[in-house]
Amino acid sequence: MKALLIVDVQNDFCPGGTLAVPGGNKVVPVINSLMAAFEVIVASKDWHPRDTVHFKKWPPHCVQGSPGADFHPALDASKIQKTFLKGTLNKDDGYSAFEATNDDLTHFLKGKGVTDLYVTGLATDYCVKASALDAEKNGFETYLVEDAVAAVNVRPGDDERALREMRKTGVVLIQSSEITGDGSM
Fold first, then answer.
1. Domain map of the chain by residue range?
2. 125 and 158 in contact (C-beta within 8 Å)?
3. Cβ neighbours, 10 Å, residue 82
4. Side by side, which strands form the sheet with 2-7?
5. Active-site residue flag, 14
6. How distant, in Å, are the alpha carbons of 34, 62, 92, 96, 151 from that of 19?
7. Which CATH number fits domain 2-44+69-84+93-180: 3.40.640.10, 3.40.50.850, 2.60.40.10, 2.60.40.420?
8. In terms of Cα–Cα distance, which of 183, 115, 104, 103 is closest to 143?
9. Which of 2, 45, 86, 129 is catalytic?
10. Distance of alpha carbon 185 from alpha carbon 183, whole angstroms
11. Is 8 labeled as catalytic in the residue annotation?
C-alpha cells in the first residue's frame, strides 16, 4: 500500500507568507495531480504557539489558528484524510511530520497497511528532509517527489545537500511523471 505525505504546504511558506519558500506555490498543482494515484493521503502542518523558542531561529510563521497556518488555498485539502500537527510545544521545533503531537503518523500509516511513502511539500532542506529521513527510520520505503518539493536554501546549495543526505539513507528520488505518466507506481 502506498501513501502520499504532503509536508507543510501552508500559506506562510508560500509567496507572501512570513517564511516564504521560493517557488513554494509551484508545488501545489503537482501535488494536486498526484492525489488521484493514492488511496491514503496525509499531511502535516507547522502549528506553532506564539511564544515558541523556534521563533528565535526563524521569523514567526504558522502560528496556531492564524491564516498563515492554513493550507495554501489552491491545495485540494478535501482529499487529505488526516493532518498531523507538529511544532506545537513551546520548546519544540517540530521539523518532521513524524514528530506530530496530535497523533502518531507511523501508527496511523501502518494501521492502513502502508509500506511505501511518497513525500512532497515544503521545504526540501528542512521539514521535507526530516520527514523523509524519519520515514526511512520507521521502516517505510520512502520516495521523494522532486518536482513536488521546494527548498528554503538559507545557504546556497542547501537543497542539493539535503537531496544527497536523503539519497544516502535510502530515500529514492523520483519525478511526479513516474507516478502519473503511465499510471503505474
1. 2-44+69-84+93-180
2. yes
3. 16
4. 82-86, 40-46, 2-7, 116-122, 141-150, 172-174
5. no
6. 25, 9, 18, 17, 11
7. 3.40.50.850
8. 115
9. 86
10. 7
11. yes
One-letter amino acid for residue 156 of the chain: P
d(CA 44, CA 98): 9
Q: What is the DSSP letter of 89?
A: S
Catalytic annotation on 127?
A: yes
Identified catalytic residue from 14, 45, 125, 127? 127
Query: Model's pTM, two decimal places?
Result: 0.96
In this predicted model, what pLDDT tens digit does every residue of 54-88 receive, in sequence order? Answer: 999 999 999 999 999 999 999 999 999 999 999 99
